[in-house]
What we know:
Two copies of one chain form a homodimer.
Chain A: E1 2-8, H1 36-43, E2 53-58, H2 62-68, E3 77-80, H3 86-100, E4 105-110, E5 114-116, H4 118-134, E6 139-144, E7 155-162, E8 175-182, H5 187-196, E9 199-208, H6 210-220, H7 222-234, H8 240-250, H9 256-261, E10 267-272, E11 275-277, H10 284-289, E12 297-299, E13 302-308, E14 311-313, E15 319-326, E16 328-332, E17 336-341, H11 348-357
Parallel strand pairs in A: 1-2, 1-4, 2-3, 6-10, 12-14, 13-15, 14-16
Antiparallel strand pairs in A: 4-9, 5-11, 6-9, 7-8, 7-9, 8-10, 16-17
Helix pairs in contact in A: 3-6, 3-7, 6-7, 7-8
Amino acid sequence: MLHAVIMAGGAGTRFWPSSRVARPKQLLDLASEQTMIQATVQRLHGLVPPERIWVLTNRILVEPIAEQLPQLPPAAIIGEPCKRDTAPCIALASVLIARQDPDAVMVVTPADQVIGPVERFQQTIAFAVELAREQPERIVTFGIKPSYPAETFGYIERGEPIPPPAGGGRDALSAFAVRKFREKPSAQVAQQYLDAGRYYWNSGIFVWRPATIMAALERFEPDMCGHIATIADAVGSDDYPAVLDREFAAIQGKSIDYAVMEKYDPVVVVEADFAWDDVGSWQSLARTHGADADGNTIIGRHVGLRTSGSIVRTDARHLVVTLGVQDLIVVHTPDATLVANKRDEESIRQVVTWLKEHGWNEYL
Amino acid sequence: MLHAVIMAGGAGTRFWPSSRVARPKQLLDLASEQTMIQATVQRLHGLVPPERIWVLTNRILVEPIAEQLPQLPPAAIIGEPCKRDTAPCIALASVLIARQDPDAVMVVTPADQVIGPVERFQQTIAFAVELAREQPERIVTFGIKPSYPAETFGYIERGEPIPPPAGGGRDALSAFAVRKFREKPSAQVAQQYLDAGRYYWNSGIFVWRPATIMAALERFEPDMCGHIATIADAVGSDDYPAVLDREFAAIQGKSIDYAVMEKYDPVVVVEADFAWDDVGSWQSLARTHGADADGNTIIGRHVGLRTSGSIVRTDARHLVVTLGVQDLIVVHTPDATLVANKRDEESIRQVVTWLKEHGWNEYL
């Protein structure tokens, strides 16, 4: 059966001041009326029932996530005691699923992407599931056709086409062998990727059998798998919290791309033609919400005179007025307001660091 | 005896969002711990006792001003039913004072200036009072030596020196006949005034005998004086509120400069060497509060990275973060935030107009 694993451990510091330690990006309604994690679960509706959806997150987020997702079994929301990147998270989820359902296939997705339409997303996942069932050793990834020379994504270079699964070719979906995973490129290289036509953005969504990814991790990361096995064995026992704390902390953090993808074969990339946005920064709101004739994206109460190219977000009834400004990001929250040059957006992380260093924890 | 009249009817729309209809500039602590009108009364301490201080203001501000100035007799705070500029305000105050104290001298001052040190201010006023007592027909004004070619002030051109009052020459103060009042100049003309050395900024502070200014007004504005006399006659009667409403509304609004100063003789200008600021806009906070090494003036909780030439004001514990911005004005209040280019500051009035026109009265 198909299970879903939602990775929801991100800190989302680029979305400060809306994003806070106890309420990061995936718990915010940045892109729609729903929070991003609610939209992620909603997107799986009809494809994966709630009782087969797993959420892995930072321990302090277990409770707020459970509040946002009351339809999920409480035990399905697993709190990691510390940050160890995606590979240990995926390993733990895979072991837990495999113990319940040895023949499972799983889809792994971040909690903070904007994807649509849902129907096309589900067709694409179903196509990948067939590919994974057809050849159980396959790892399936999803490649987004680049629409601009993005420097902020990893890329997947495709190789030879893969024949569609039996009875396939449906829905005009196609798959390729992966030639190579590529790190975030320079502007120049990103332009070359765009021009070449055989490079996709790495969506961070995967489909595989838990047994397959576990075998890969056993091969490339035996030490990590030892700790994960100890944790899995303790599930349900009184020792579990202590074991989880100790063993998870002992793992060396590593991304799944670095731990497995770049070394494994066969990896398949499905060309995903659904709309996709990783909502990586405030500027992405211009994509998800659109912009007016002056290039402004406004969420909330705003009056702008001679204002252009700006993003304004304000809560409730708080009014933001902008006057004679260009290319600003203005974000108002009840206890903190950000006014940033769009070109300086990367530095929002520095602000969070500054606040930590100076003990201004009330704003974190 | 010396009386003081504080003109406190201004709307202060340039200080939106801190300044609101029911709490304009003179009721704000823009320049110090005290509100501007409290500082204005404090500045008179020892020179004019509270029972001889009069405040003329907009009717809706009578109550908040009484709260800020509990030392003043409630009857001394007079609410005008509508805006009619400074001449009717001064006429009404003059009649009321003259009725109590026919030989009075009065100092008239705006409620929203920053002046210091107090001792020098009081010496200068006392000097002017002597000039007004010596020749009762004199109207005395105060000229501020310009420190830059300001386009936002009216100017006073001085003529021949006036001999100091008997026993005078004290405190190194000097006075001149006024040659001409000058309107707000262009940048080029302002520079000529600065270079010429015989032009002063018109401080808007005056000293005269009530009888003198009333005689001048009777001559130049007989119609205005008729309405004012009717109001003064009704003081203390049951009809007073109705009479005030009717008669004040019937007056044609006019500034005292336009009604009297530009036509009258003799007008004297005392060279005022106290520090003076009319706190005309957010940028004046850079003068009253100083600026840091990056040219930023910060009032409240702020973190700035690559921020320069900016003015930030925030209330209570609300944090404002600025990132990669120059020459901005950022003002946070509980229900509205302004982000303006310093060069666009004049347009803050337009915002207030916009809010009025669109019925967003909660932010006015």
